[in-house]
């Protein structure tokens, strides 16, 4: 059994640096596209056998050291009571954005077993099919990131509605964050109890905040969620996209592992994070469009710079892009293994 | 004559912190909208009297300490030979993206007096009409930012084409950057000779690069442009959006002033930048949607944190948003002046 990933999360000795890729189950794999051509995106997320199938594909094809449950961060938002659709062009489109107390009051804190049983079933299938080959990571959007979708009603450019609510109606915003945080805790606790061996909180949009607002308004919810989840004894990874200005704050999150995006100088991040957490990251996903030798150079550079960390899990600094040549992703994983031994 | 802005750029003593706002001439002002309702955006840029008129509006209405020429960063790109259009929905749309040697060869290094005389005429009018009331800032996109538009053909999400060229065809990319850098130098030199009393290089998209790529591939062009411009003896401001991970590199740019976005902890930035440069920034533009007291608190916080800098020019961390209530922008300027005295 390959438990290199779990060991690196805990800062234990490993014989090679473990690696997985954010969005490793995805469109850049023709095997994924084959499955996806037969069902729409949400059906794929909600059919345990299919979700499990695409989750395992990158373990077989790339040789990564961890599997991550195939799902979408908006699944629990739908379960909270918002209508969810995926448009090929615009991405996720949610029903009526929540911008008032009456809107927020309508949202519920869903019970995962009741309203998202397919997630727990997929985890059960995966644990059986993986047979300990590699650990399985569960995940959820972090509270603020889910809040932006709920308030904006989808993706956004400047997140004006979210920030307006933060600044103009703090009580409403905090009430919403309370509900979302409770949802995230329930959802990840259920994933862990169903068999997830680590969990990652994706804070894809926290990087749009000033350090002031992040620390003052958002960070208490992050810490509360992580504290509740660490009780289960599995590693908690906290990934924040565009986090270069936030690292000094994030180090106090309580997570076992901090995931950083590619805009961060990982040498600098490791210094700031100190010896109590492991680090995950952070190759620019676009480097996978470069020639093989260049990819190797960049892998080596990141391995060197992250070396002083308590533990290092190699990853991209953001999700792998759909246009990525699969053979380059394979070469990257191979290079991480070879160069870190 | 109010030369507080120029003094702060040079790190000289001032009796209050000078302030201006990126995109201060713009849609959030009804006086701007009145002018704009009669002509399209490009005509406004290219009609010296009108460009001068909207440039002065925020000096009168907000009481800012500097005027910045109203124009668009793609004006010199059009002069290099690319077709340029503005769509209300999609923003700038350029003709055939440049992705080959033949495409790059077709671009010219334009002479500003020949191909963009309207810019120089607007500056001449402005110097006369401002009569030294406040200094006039000229500007240009920085080389990499202009390159992204030229290679992507407009705005982009992941800048895959730009990075592909950087990684797969370094010679082509560098040839293009040479040409763009020469254009930027010519363009800003002409603005200075026409009367611009400071210039700002906007690197709106350099923040999408890893520190590794930024330092290795892009930074030499930044330094070359700044070095050429500093010969004229007017302050050079270098603003990089999303620069939290790049500050340790940027400090060596040679610019008189480094402008930072709102995601940066300005206290941290000031420490890293040292005593040889002034700092500009960095209120989140969305804070202008907050109640008056909150705006004041945030102004005070930034003034305190930037205080140890050689000089501080207060600004937003990015362009003011079209939806901003004008009275809040006025209140912000007033608060900067009052609280910094």
Topology of helices and strands:
Two copies of one chain form a homodimer.
Chain A: H1 4-10, H2 30-36, H3 41-46, H4 48-62, E1 67-68, H5 75-79, E2 84-87, E3 91-94, H6 101-106, H7 112-115, H8 117-130, E4 136-141, H9 143-152, H10 160-168, H11 170-194, E5 198-203, H12 211-230, E6 236-240, H13 247-250, E7 257-260, H14 266-273, E8 278-283, H15 292-306, E9 312-316, H16 326-340
Parallel strand pairs in A: 1-4, 4-5, 5-6, 6-7, 7-8, 8-9
Antiparallel strand pairs in A: 2-3
Protein architecture, described:
- Two copies of one chain form a homodimer.
- The relative contact order of chain A is 0.14.
- Chain A has a seven-stranded parallel β-sheet, with helices on both faces.
- Chain A has 341 residues and is an alpha/beta fold.
- Chain A has a single domain (29-282), classed as TIM Barrel (Alpha-Beta Barrel).
- Chain A is built from 16 helices and nine strands.
- Chain A is globular.
- The A-B interface holds A 158-160, 163-164, 167-168, 207-213, 242, 244-246, 248, 262-265, 268, 284-287, 289-291, 294, 298, 301, 317, 321, 323 and B 158-160, 163-164, 167-168, 207-213, 242, 244-246, 248, 262-265, 268, 282, 284-287, 289-291, 294, 298, 301, 317, 321, 323.
């Amino acid at each position: 059994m390959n438990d290199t990933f779990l060991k690196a999360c805990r800062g234990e000795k490993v014989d090679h640096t473990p690696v997985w890729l954010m969005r490793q189950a995805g469109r850049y794999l023709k095997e994924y596209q084959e499955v996806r051509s037969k069902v729409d995106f949400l059906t794929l997320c909600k059919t345990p056998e299919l979700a499990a199938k695409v989750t395992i594909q990158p373990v077989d094809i790339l040789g990564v050291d961890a599997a991550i449950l195939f799902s979408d961060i908006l699944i629990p938002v739908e379960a909270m009571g918002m209508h969810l659709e995926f448009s090929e062009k615009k991405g996720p489109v949610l029903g009526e954005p929540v911008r008032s107390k009456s809107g927020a009051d309508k949202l519920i804190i869903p019970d995962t077993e009741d309203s998202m049983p397919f997630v727990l079933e997929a985890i059960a299938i995966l644990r059986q099919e993986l047979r300990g080959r590699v650990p399985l990571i569960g995940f959820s959007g972090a509270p603020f990131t889910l809040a932006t979708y709920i308030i904006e009603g989808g993706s956004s450019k400047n997140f004006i509605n979210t920030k307006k609510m933060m600044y103009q109606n703090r009580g409403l915003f905090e009430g919403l964050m309370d509900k979302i945080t409770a949802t995230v805790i329930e959802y990840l606790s259920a994933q862990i109890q169903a068999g997830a061996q680590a969990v990652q909180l994706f804070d894809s949009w926290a990087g749009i905040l000033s350090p002031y607002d992040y620390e003052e308004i958002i960070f208490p919810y992050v810490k509360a969620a992580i504290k509740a989840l660490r009780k289960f004894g599995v590693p908690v990874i906290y990934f924040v996209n565009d986090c270069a200005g936030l690292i000094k704050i994030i180090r106090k999150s309580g997570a076992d592992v901090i995931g950083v995006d590619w805009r961060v100088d990982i040498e600098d991040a490791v210094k700031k994070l100190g010896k109590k957490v492991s680090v995950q990251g952070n190759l620019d996903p676009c480097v996978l469009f470069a020639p093989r030798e260049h990819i190797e150079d960049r892998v080596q550079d990141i391995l060197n710079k992250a070396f002083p960390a308590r533990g290092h899990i190699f990853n991209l600094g953001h999700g792998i892009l759909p246009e990525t040549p699969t053979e380059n992703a394979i070469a990257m994983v191979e290079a991480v293994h070879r160069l870190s031994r």
